[in-house]
Fold this sequence. Notes:
The protein is α+β, with helices and mostly antiparallel strands and 164 residues long. It has helices at residues 26-33, 91-98, 108-121, 127-133, 145-161, and strands spanning 4-11, 14-21, 52-55, 58-61, 74-76. The protein is 33% helix and 16% strand. Helix 2 (91-98) crosses helix 5. The chain is globular, with a radius of gyration of 16 Å. The structure holds FE2/S2 (inorganic) cluster (2 copies). One FE2/S2 (inorganic) cluster (FES) binds at residues 102-107, 139-142.
Amino acid sequence: MTTKHPVSVKVNGIRYEREVEARLTLADFLRHELALGGTHVGCEHGICGVCTVLIDGRSARSCLTLAVQIDGAEVTTVEGLRNRETGGLHPIQQAFVEAHGLQCGFCTPGFIMTTLELLRENPDPSEEEIKEALGGNLCRCTGYQSILESVKLAAAKLRETQGA
Length: 164
Ligand code: FES
Ligand code: FES
């Protein structure tokens, strides 16, 4: 019989209690246990960044994190960015739409979560700082320039909403 371990975690503001196998990754926990398919899975080796989520406010590869490791933590996925009252897109999501920061969209949740962490720490990043922050996220479609423009637009939108 497989031993299961209790996990109590807050995801996008909602508390979940589950029993999981020790080897279950956070990515699979989110996708299969909680039906949060916005976190994608690509390489499963920590290389591509599509599985990026925030754990207690810090970006992390959910393919390299075990579900049991997040017991007691707070996780934010791309689903958590929408405005809870209006259902509207987060300014970062809106910026990616407006500046054509996606084509197939497979990499997009990872870029958006990485951008969220960047702009919380640095609301007005230089181009070099954006490149540095997004260096661990891979995209096969866009050529990156439109992603760069999306992050600049997202930064401007967030500064505007914060009255900066
Ligand atoms: S799927 Fe996690 S880094 Fe590629
Ligand atoms: S938009 Fe297709 S992989 Fe990035």
